[in-house]
C-alpha cells in the first residue's frame, strides 16, 4: 500500500471515529421533542447542567436559569444531564405532590443508584441512600431514638458543650487574629462534640483538641473520583456494573473501631450514670432486633453523614446572617433575654418564635441542599400547564429545584433580603409556605428529614449561648454576597465565613 493510501485510510478512520462519537453524543437529544415536552437546548458534551462537570460555578445556577426561563410557561421541562433525559419540576404544588401524594411513584432518591452496601456498608445503610423496603426498615429503626423526650434528656450535654464553645470564643477575643474566627471551624468543633457525646457516648473536647475523635481523619472521610463521575455521566450503565465507595476504607475502619470501643465501654457498665442517649437506645434495639455491631455503626454514621455538615453549616450561616443584619441580631438577643434570662429551659428555648424564624429564614437563603433528585419508581402521568401529558417512565430522575423556588420574588418578596418576620405566626408562620410547596429546607412527606428536630435544638441552644454573651460582626475577609462554593455539593459561602466576636 502506498504511503498516500495509508494517510487517506487513516484520515477516513479518524473522521469516521469522530462522526460516531458525535452521533453517540447526540443520538437521544430529540427525546423531549418526541414527547412534546419543552426544555432548553443541551450542550453536546455536558447537556443542560455543564457546571456539574466543569465546576466553574455551582450547578444550582444552571438549574436556576432554566427555572427562571420556563416557570411561567411550564409546570415541568425536559433537560439532559450530560446525555441522560431528566425531568425538572417547576411548579411548587406539583413538587409537593411528588413528595407527598404521589410518593409511591417517587419512592427513592437518586443516591440509592450510586451506593451499594456490599461496597460501602456504612453509606449503603443510610436511609437517604437506601431504597424500597430497606429504606423503610432503616428509617423506622432510627426515628424512635430521636423523640423530643430523648432529645430533651440529652439537652444537659448540649448545654455543657455550648459553655465550652463560649470559652473558646472568649479565647479568640483575647487572642484576636486579623481574619477573625472561622465560623465553620467553630461550628464543626461544636457538632463533633454533640455527635460524639449525645449519639456515640464518647467524651471529647474538640474546642481544646483539634484531634478529637470525630475531627481526626475527617478530611479522609470521603473519596470522589471526577473521572468516574464524567464516565458515568456519559455512560450511566457503568453505575450498574461498578459502584464506587464514598466513605474511604480507612475512615470506615477507624469509625467502626471507635464505635466498638464505645459499645464495649457502655456494655461493661463502668459509667457512673445511666445515660438516656442515642447509643443507649441503639443498644436496646440491637438486643431486640438482633442487629450486628456494623448495623449499629451504620446508624451512628448516619448522624455524621447527614447531621454533622448540615447542622454545623446552618449554625455558621445563621451567625453570618445575624452578623450582616445587626438590628435583627439585637431583636433576637432581646427575645432571648426577655423570655429566658439566665434560665436554660428546654421547652422555652425550643419554642422561641423569633429564634425559630431567624433559623428558618437563614436556611431559606443558605439551605443545606439546593435541589432533590428523585427516581420514578412507578410510572405516572403528569399534566403540563398547556394541558399536554407526559408519562414519567420508571427509572427517570426527577429534579425538584428547591432553592430557585425559595428565592423566587413571587413567593418571597425581596427574596434576597434576610427577613425572619415573614415566618412569624402573626404573618401566617412557616406553615403557609410549607403547605404550598414553597419551603423545602428539610424535605416533606414520608422521607422528610428525620433529624431536623434534633438539629434545630442544637442550633438554638448554641445561638442562645453565643448571643447572650457576644455581639457578632462579619470580618472583612468574608464576602458580602451569596455566591456558593462551586466545589461543594451542599450550600456553602464561597471563600468561607469569618466572624468577629465582641463580649457584651
Ligand atoms: C437542622 C438540620 C437539618 C436539616 C436542615 C436537614 C435537611 C435535610 C434534607 C433537605 C433532607 C432531604 C429531604 C428530601 O428532600 O428528601 C434530609 C434528609 C435526611 N436527614 Fe436531615 N437535615 C438536618 C439534620 C439532620 C440530622 C441531625 C440528621 C441525623 C440523623 C439527619 C438525617 C437525615 C436522614 C437520615 C435523611 C434521609 C431521610 C429519608 O430519606 O428517609 N438530618 N435532611
Question: How are the secondary structure elements laid out?
Answer:
Blueprint: H1 3-26, H2 31-34, H3 51-54, H4 59-70, E1 76-81, E2 84-89, H5 92-99, E3 108-109, H6 121-124, H7 132-142, H8 148-153, H9 155-174, E4 181-182, H10 183-199, H11 226-234, H12 238-241, H13 249-268, H14 278-289, H15 293-324, H16 326-340, H17 346-351, H18 353-365, E5 372-375, E6 380-383, E7 389-392, E8 397-400, H19 402-406, H20 429-434, H21 452-469, E9 470-474, E10 498-503
Parallel strand pairs: 2-8
Antiparallel strand pairs: 1-2, 3-5, 4-10, 5-8, 6-7, 9-10
Helix pairs in contact: 9-10, 9-21, 10-15, 13-15, 14-15, 15-18, 15-21
Bound molecules: protoporphyrin IX containing FE.
Protoporphyrin IX containing FE binds near residues 127, 128, 139, 363 and 455.
Amino acid at each position: 500500500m502506498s504511503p498516500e493510501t495509508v494517510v487517506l485510510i487513516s484520515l477516513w478512520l479518524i473522521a469516521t471515529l469522530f462522526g460516531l462519537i458525535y452521533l453517540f453524543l447526540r443520538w437521544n437529544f430529540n427525546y423531549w421533542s418526541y414527547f412534546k415536552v419543552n426544555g432548553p437546548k443541551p450542550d453536546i458534551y455536558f447537556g443542560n447542567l455543564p457546571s456539574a462537570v466543569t465546576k466553574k460555578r455551582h450547578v444550582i445556577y444552571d438549574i436556576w436559569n432554566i427555572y427562571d426561563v420556563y416557570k411561567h410557561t411550564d409546570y415541568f421541562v425536559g433537560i439532559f444531564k450530560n446525555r441522560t433525559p431528566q425531568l425538572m419540576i417547576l411548579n411548587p404544588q406539583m413538587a409537593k405532590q411528588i413528595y407527598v401524594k404521589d410518593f409511591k411513584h417517587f419512592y427513592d432518591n437518586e443516591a440509592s443508584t450510586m451506593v451499594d452496601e456490599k461496597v460501602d456498608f456504612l453509606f449503603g445503610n443510610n436511609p437517604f441512600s437506601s431504597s424500597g423496603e430497606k429504606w423503610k426498615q432503616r428509617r423506622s429503626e432510627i426515628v424512635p431514638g430521636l423523640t423530643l423526650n430523648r432529645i430533651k434528656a440529652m439537652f444537659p450535654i448540649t448545654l455543657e458543650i455550648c459553655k465550652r464553645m463560649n470559652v473558646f470564643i472568649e479565647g479568640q477575643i483575647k487572642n484576636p487574629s486579623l481574619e477573625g474566627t472561622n465560623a465553620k471551624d467553630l461550628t464543626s468543633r461544636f457538632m463533633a462534640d454533640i455527635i460524639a457525646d449525645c449519639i456515640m457516648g464518647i467524651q471529647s473536647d474538640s474546642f481544646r483538641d483539634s484531634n478529637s475523635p470525630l475531627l481526626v481523619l475527617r478530611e479522609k472521610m470521603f473519596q470522589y473520583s471526577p473521572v468516574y463521575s464524567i464516565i458515568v455521566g456519559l455512560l450511566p450503565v457503568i453505575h450498574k456494573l461498578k459502584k464506587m465507595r464514598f466513605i474511604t476504607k480507612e475512615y470506615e475502619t477507624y469509625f467502626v473501631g471507635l464505635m466498638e470501643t464505645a459499645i464495649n465501654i457502655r456494655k461493661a457498665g463502668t459509667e457512673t450514670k445511666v445515660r438516656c442517649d442515642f447509643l443507649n437506645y441503639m443498644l436496646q434495639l440491637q438486643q431486640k432486633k438482633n442487629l450486628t455491631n456494623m448495623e449499629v455503626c451504620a446508624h451512628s454514621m448516619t448522624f455524621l453523614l447527614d447531621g454533622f455538615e448540615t447542622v454545623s453549616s446552618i449554625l455558621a450561616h445563621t451567625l453570618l446572617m445575624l452578623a450582616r443584619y445587626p438590628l435583627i441580631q439585637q431583636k433576637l438577643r432581646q427575645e432571648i433575654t426577655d423570655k429566658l434570662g439566665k434560665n436554660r429551659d428546654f421547652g422555652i428555648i425550643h419554642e422561641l418564635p423569633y429564634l425559630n424564624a431567624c433559623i428558618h429564614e437563614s436556611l431559606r437563603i443558605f439551605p443545606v441542599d439546593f435541589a432533590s433528585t428523585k427516581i420514578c419508581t412507578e410510572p405516572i402521568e403528569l399534566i403540563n400547564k398547556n394541558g399536554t401529558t407526559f408519562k414519567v417512565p420508571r427509572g427517570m430522575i426527577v429534579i425538584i429545584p428547591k432553592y430557585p423556588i425559595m428565592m423566587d420574588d413571587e413567593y418571597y418578596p425581596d427574596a434576597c433580603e434576610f427577613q425572619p418576620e415573614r415566618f412569624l405566626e402573626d404573618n401566617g408562620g412557616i406553615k403557609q409556605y410549607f403547605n404550598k410547596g414553597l419551603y423545602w429546607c428539610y424535605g416533606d412527606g414520608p422521607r422528610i428529614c428525620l433529624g431536623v428536630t434534633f438539629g434545630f435544638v442544637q442550633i438554638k441552644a448554641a445561638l442562645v449561648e453565643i448571643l447572650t454573651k457576644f455581639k457578632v460582626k462579619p470580618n472583612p475577609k468574608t464576602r458580602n454576597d451569596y455566591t456558593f462554593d462551586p466545589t461543594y455539593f451542599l450550600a456553602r459561602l464561597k471563600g468561607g465565613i469569618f466572624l468577629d466576636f465582641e463580649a457584651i
